[in-house]
Amino acid sequence: MMPRDRLRIAVQKSGRLGDPSRELLSRCGLKFRSSRDKLFCFGENMAVDLLLVRDDDIPGLIADGVCDLGVVGRNVLDEAALATPGEMPYRELRALGFGGCRLSIALPQDEAWTGPQQLAGKRIATTYPNQLADWLRRNEVDAQIVTLSGSVEIAPRLGTADLICDLVSSGATLAANQLRETAVIMQSEAVLAGAAEMPRDERGDLIELLLRRLDGVLNVRESRLLMLKAPRAALAAIVDLLPGRPLPTVTTIEGRPDDIALQCVCSGNVSWQDLEAMKRAGAQGMLVLPVEMMLA
Ligand code: PRP
Ligand code: ZN
């Protein structure tokens, strides 16, 4: 293969992960001469190009060295890894926090679920035969795997299988096909995958730069709401200790003129050490809450 000095990232061309993948990369400062209908997007401001492909092809493109990185569902990556036992040509570099779904067993709605053992002797339709086989083995269940390339959810109605093993996100597909989710085989989300060995040239440096930026972007999603009370005299010292130096809102407490209540959004996690330092400075009743939504 021709040596390359530009980094190449595979992303899903269409489908669930396509848009959020490209949006995440642009939040990392990458600009592409983008044409959605093309296979290749040239990186305009960095030596990083995109290849727009079918998600199922991404593990192979990384393993073969055609692409250095890929944004792909963990379900696709794990399925490919199980299909090539022994070698592990790629690894998960970062979980990206979008495209959440799970690989689950689903039965016709009117059938009761008593546990994996009831699947013995049944025909299970799936596009994930390796993960299903692995799960059946771990549960010591002997069932027949019917490998399909798509439209798994209609197999029970067509009579080609008794039940299915498929991805579930909102659950709408299962509901529309009178199926219900029972056992969860794996939890998936979009991940950044790369070759097991980093390229030892400029591309390796680009990957490191990209990972640092990615961490910067992903950390915003870790924002926390911090609330505490303190003597007014301790306020300046506590403000100095707020992780990430956010702008705090300070309010009075009715009936306690010498104390204040403070509230702020900390970008990045608040550690036990942060809380302990603030406590030593006089803070009390500290609460750390996850931030679910923010509208500026
Ligand atoms: C999955 C799965 C179901 C659907 C479930 O396919 O095969 O058809 O999503 O989603 P829901 O619970 O929100 O209804 P996907 O769209 O990921 O396409 P692919 O498996 O062909 O890549
Ligand atoms: Zn797919």
UniProtKB/TrEMBL annotation:
Cofactors demanded by this protein: Mg(2+)
Function: Catalyzes the condensation of ATP and 5-phosphoribose 1-diphosphate to form N'-(5'-phosphoribosyl)-ATP (PR-ATP). Has a crucial role in the pathway because the rate of histidine biosynthesis seems to be controlled primarily by regulation of HisG enzymatic activity.
Biological process, per Gene Ontology: L-histidine biosynthetic process
E.C. numbers: 2.4.2.17
Keywords annotated in UniProt: Amino-acid biosynthesis, ATP-binding, Cytoplasm, Glycosyltransferase, Histidine biosynthesis, Magnesium, Metal-binding, Nucleotide-binding, Transferase
Name assigned to this protein: ATP phosphoribosyltransferase
GO cellular component: cytoplasm
Description of activity control: Feedback inhibited by histidine.
Gene3D superfamilies (UniProt xref): 3.30.70.120, Periplasmic binding protein-like II
Source organism, top-level taxon: Bacteria
Catalysed conversion reaction: 1-(5-phospho-beta-D-ribosyl)-ATP + diphosphate = 5-phospho-alpha-D-ribose 1-diphosphate + ATP
Domain ATP phosphoribosyltransferase catalytic per the UniProt entry, residue ranges: 54-215
Boundaries of every Histidine biosynthesis HisG C-terminal domain copy: 222-292
Primary location recorded for the protein, binned into one broad class: cytoplasm
PROSITE patterns, per database record: ATP_P_PHORIBOSYLTR
UniProt xrefs under InterPro entries: ATP-PRT_HisG_long, ATP_PRibTrfase_cat, ATP_PRibTrfase_CS, ATP_PRibTrfase_HisG, HisG_C, N-reg_PII-like_a/b, N-reg_PII/ATP_PRibTrfase_C
GO MF annotations in UniProt: ATP binding; ATP phosphoribosyltransferase activity; magnesium ion binding
Pfam families: HisG, HisG_C
Protein family according to the UniProt entry: Belongs to the ATP phosphoribosyltransferase family. Long subfamily.
